[in-house]
Amino acid sequence: MLKGLGFNGDCIGDRRRFCGGGGEPVTLTNVRGLDQGREEETILSPEPKAITVRELCFAYGGQAPVLDSLSLQVAPGERLGIIGHNGCGKTTLFLLLCGLLKPSAGTIELWGSPLQPGKFLPEVGLLFQNPTDQLFATSVWDDIAFGPQNMGLSAETVAQRVTQAAQLTGVTALLERLPHHLSGGEKQMVAIAGLLAMAPKIFFCDEPTASLDIRARRQLINFLGQFQETLLISSHDLEFVLEVCDRVIVIDQGQIVADGGAEEIMGNQTLMVSHGLEKPYSLR
Ligand SMILES: Nc1ncnc2c1ncn2[C@@H]1O[C@H](COP(=O)(O)OP(=O)(O)OP(=O)(O)O)[C@@H](O)[C@H]1O
């Protein structure tokens, strides 16, 4: 869970600066396909991991470590579910991976380059647990446009990005509305549209189904099912994780205690219970 943005002085900068994106048009299916330079590089040399974390440690303001020598690799295009009991450090890990928190020790690389905490990350999108944390403009259009505008794109390109992102997330009819008058599910889809408008290459979703009803949850599953970039989802909605993610890690006591196929990990009753989790109903 996100405990506000006052991270005892460990938090770096403004969240909107980090909900960045790449330079490509917004589509669910062709974002990587459009990136021909990267395809050519792939032929010449193996593509670096999207995320490489080595011995990552973090503690909030002199408290006990939340993350304790955690190491992780995520391949480009992988869909990784992050599960664990309340307070195990899932949100903290996302904030570190976005450069919003600075590690106490250890290293983080995105596509083979060291992450510099506090630096603008044009290709990383973080969907906050509470969509209200992400919306602040006086119209949905302005909210979705905020990111592309801050990337220095032309007014025409910004308008295109807003239109495309709104279509992809099904919020076109809401574009003139006040974000704070929307329902929880509508806010969530608008927040996603705002991130997509920046064409992120890595998308972190923190508890994305928390405020969604069954229909909106299904819409999100369908949506993320088509998303082709690297996707990391932290959630207590294990059925959701099962549907969207291929791989799952379990975090406990600051470390990854299990890592494998989603069904393999979440179907293991002993493992799940021993880390304060329950086997999803559909795997019983
Ligand atoms: N700003 C903060 N200052 C001090 N401690 C914090 C802060 N934010 C989180 N914590 C603590 O760090 C630990 C990890 O919190 P975090 O939100 O990362 O866990 P989580 O796995 O996302 O939890 P949940 O499943 O409940 O959302 C918790 O013990 C929490 O109380």
From TrEMBL:
<feature type="domain" description="ABC transporter">
    <location>
        <begin position="51"/>
        <end position="278"/>
    </location>
</feature>
<dbReference type="InterPro" id="IPR027417">
    <property type="entry name" value="P-loop_NTPase"/>
</dbReference>
<dbReference type="InterPro" id="IPR017871">
    <property type="entry name" value="ABC_transporter-like_CS"/>
</dbReference>
<comment type="similarity">
    <text>Belongs to the ABC transporter superfamily.</text>
</comment>
<dbReference type="InterPro" id="IPR003593">
    <property type="entry name" value="AAA+_ATPase"/>
</dbReference>
<dbReference type="GO" id="GO:0005524">
    <property type="term" value="F:ATP binding"/>
</dbReference>
<dbReference type="Pfam" id="PF00005">
    <property type="entry name" value="ABC_tran"/>
</dbReference>
<protein>
    <submittedName>
        <fullName>ABC transporter ATP-binding protein</fullName>
    </submittedName>
</protein>
<dbReference type="InterPro" id="IPR003439">
    <property type="entry name" value="ABC_transporter-like_ATP-bd"/>
</dbReference>
<keyword id="KW-0067">ATP-binding</keyword>
<keyword id="KW-0547">Nucleotide-binding</keyword>
<dbReference type="InterPro" id="IPR050095">
    <property type="entry name" value="ECF_ABC_transporter_ATP-bd"/>
</dbReference>
<keyword id="KW-0813">Transport</keyword>
<dbReference type="InterPro" id="IPR015856">
    <property type="entry name" value="ABC_transpr_CbiO/EcfA_su"/>
</dbReference>
